[in-house]
Each structure stands twice: as C-alpha cells, then as structure tokens.
Amino acid sequence: MSTIGQWQLRAAFAVRLSEMYGREVPAYTTLVDVSREVNEDVLRARGADAERLGSIGRVTAERHGAIRVGTPRELHQVARVFGALGMHPVGFYDLREAAASAVPVVSTAFRPVDAEELARNPFRVFTSLLTPADPRFFDADLRARLERFLAARELFPPELLTLADRATADRGLPAEDAERFLELAVQAFELSAEPVDRAWYRTLEKVSAVAADIGGVRSTHINHLTPRVLDIDELYRRMTDRGIEMIDTIQGPPAWKGPDVLLRQTSFRALAEPRAMRTEDGGVVSGALRVRFGEVEARGIALTRAGRALYDELLGRVDEQAAEQPAAARADLARAVWERYLPGSEEELAARGLAYFTYRLADDRPRDGLEPPTALAELVRQGWVRAEPVVYEDFLPRSAAGIFQSNLGAEGTRDYEQQGTAHDADWLSGAVGREVLDPFALYERQQDQSLARVARALGRTAP
Ligand code: OOG
Ligand code: NI
C-alpha cells in the first residue's frame, strides 16, 4: 500500500484544519479570500519580484495556527503529534514580560526546519504553555486547583499518539492509517461542545482571559489560523472596507520603501461564540465566549543577530519618540526612524551582515576566462554569484503579545511584588521533551551551506 510521507501529512493536515476552521469561524474564510485576491493582484503588478520570498504556490497554501496547552505533559504530546508532520520546536518566546500585555505563558513554534521541507509546505503552529507556577499571576491555592484540573484532562486520545509515533518512526503512514491520523488530529483541535464550568472559568478569567481559555476547559482548540499575504497594508484596507473591524495597528516593522524584513501581522478581535455553561447548581445555560479570532501576516527577510539587535533598538527609539509626541501617528514615526537607520537595499543588508541570504553560482556568470574576484560582495556585484533572501519563518515576541490581545477583554490581576519563575529555552526543552532549536542557528546553517557549495563550485576552500 502506498505510504503518505510526512510532508504530505503536514500539507493535508493544514488543508483540513483550514476547512474545519472556516466552517467554525466564517470570518476566517473572508480573510483567506481577501488574502488570495490581494496576492493575485500583487503577482500581476510585480511579476516575478512578488515571488522573491517564496513561490506563489507556497505563499497561497501557507498558514500558521496557534494553540495553548496547560502542562509539560500536554506539550510533550503536542510535540509527538507535530513531530509526525515533520514539525519541530523552534524559538523561545516569553510572553509574561510584555509590559502592557503580559500573559502567563511561554511559547515556541513547531515548524519544518529544512529549506526543502519549508518549500514543500511551511505550516507552523505557535504553541503556548501556561505557567501556573508563576506567582505574579497565580497564588498557591489557585495554582494547586489549576494543576489538579489540568492533570485530570486528556487532550489527545492514545490512538492519535500511537499513530503519531508510528508516522515519526516510519517517516509516514500507510494511506488508511494516515486518514485516521488526520481525522483524529483535526478533531483534537476543534472547539468542544462540552459545557464550560462557568464559575471556574470566571475565576481564571480574573487572572487572564488566556489562563481561562487554557485551564478553564477540558480540551484545547486552534485559536486562529493565519494566511500569508504579499501586501498587508492593502489587505488591511480591504478588510476594513468589508466592515470587518481590525485591531488598530499592523504589528512589527512599518510600511517603508526598503526591503520587507521579519514579520508584519494584524488581526481582528475574537468574536463572541455561543457556548453551553454549567452553572453552580449543576444546570446548563447558554452563554458566549470570545476565544477565536483571525490574523494575517506578511513575511520578509530573516535578520541576523546583529540585524535583530538593530531592529529591537529601532523599536525602542520609536517608543521613545511616540512617548514624546503623543499626537504623532506611530506608523509615521516608525517609518522615519527606519529610513534613517536601516539600509534601504538587500545588497546593503547583506554587506552589513544584518540579514541572511543564500548564495548560488549564477547561470549567466562571466565566461571571459578571467579569475573570479575573492570577496563575496564582488562576486555578487560582478554577476558570478546570486544572493537570494532567506524568508523569516518565525515569530516576534512583541507582535505575539499584541496578537494575544485580540482575545483579551479586560486586563487581569497581577502581583508585581512577586518574582517571576525563571523560564528559558532550556527549561522549555525539558518540558517539551526535545531540544527547542535556535532560529538564528538554522538560518545561519542555511546561509553557510550555500556559501560552501559556491566555494566548492569555484574550486576554493572558503567563499
Ligand atoms: C498566540 C499569539 C501569537 C503570532 O502570530 O504572533 C501568534 C496565541 O494567541 O495563542 O500567533
Ligand atoms: Ni498568530
């Protein structure tokens, strides 16, 4: 019988999840439709240039989702399910620190890591783990109740996990098992119809709507699914024209005339959805919860550590200026700061070591018998070598904190007298049961491997 490989499972899972989410959250379908229209228009207007950061096939199919779980045990199970799809934990995000929008979670993203795998299907899931041990959010009594509640639930049926482990070991599944695996995996992320314990949910909601969304119910669910768009400013205008109320900003870098870098995102607020509630006296009444929303993103070039440090510094400058000039539009301040401090071309980003590129020998390189120059920049300038930008495959903590706000109504209660528990990438690796990979190291490896290939082709030991 034919085997369905891991990337095919991943692509099929992304499609089915998208179908399910579209049925459950119709506004998501609008977002996908408008994104497709914008992408077609951009492709028409800019031609091949529009595909510089990914083929239109990849971009059209591209989605990321987000889920939230309660315990290391649950996170480890998530890693088994996504591992079956060839997705690995990359990056550590601490959302507890964000100033005005702290939420009691630490996060990673499960995604493919190899360039070919990303090109086949880049599906990724931003995955957050609740931190009940953080005393800034939970006192000892609430922590104990929460941990007891979480220990008693089961997010993933054993059959799903067994199939996941088989898919990982065999790098795929026979068609019939693949079908069952996909069915169970999509089911695990549907919104449950089970009545929500109203008093318990409200208790957690006082701390944070995200804590209630994770620990107030006995299942998990995908809370948004995000298409990728080639012009997010245009998308924002068209969604607003259709009467969909977006959050008031696009998160991340400003719109400007230089290259797109990192990630720009925007979202619409979670919609109230009817949910059955169990009351204190055991009865069931109808209520409503806002837990699922829509988001869209535009992706740019991956920045090196130095590039990222510059990005963070520029954000700080924009914050300062925005505080000094409250009447000015933040987007205008940001654009001015960027135009002043950030190189306006790919060549300059590369020359200053601020962004990642892959390099390859040009098909139409000079054939005049002359010796190629030694410096990489010269090789590129004289047409021996082509540089292609590496697309940013990850997330931004500050934007993520902004996106979490999409389903936070009121701010919760915090005890800032308390010391937060120290959590870092190593701690999260322990919780997830596998190494949380460093995104910079992955981009760097991709760049280095391409340079090594160029060097070999030129008969050199170093490029
Ligand atoms: C995740 C929010 C972060 C993004 O794109 O930055 C995120 C969540 O709300 O669970 O998805
Ligand atoms: Ni997201």
Automatic annotation (TrEMBL):
Cofactor(s) the protein requires to work: Fe(2+)
Alphabetical list of InterPro entries matching this protein: HGLS, YdcJ_bac-like
Molecular function per GO: dioxygenase activity
Any single Pfam family the record assigns to this protein: HGLS
Superkingdom of the source species: Bacteria
SMART domains per UniProt: DUF1338
Alphabetized UniProt keyword annotations: Dioxygenase, Iron, Oxidoreductase
CDD domains: VOC_YdcJ_like
Presence of keyword Oxidoreductase: yes
Enzyme Commission number(s) of this protein: 1.13.11.93
Coiled-coil blocks: none
Protein family (similarity comment): Belongs to the 2-oxoadipate dioxygenase/decarboxylase family.
Protein name stated in the entry: 2-oxoadipate dioxygenase/decarboxylase
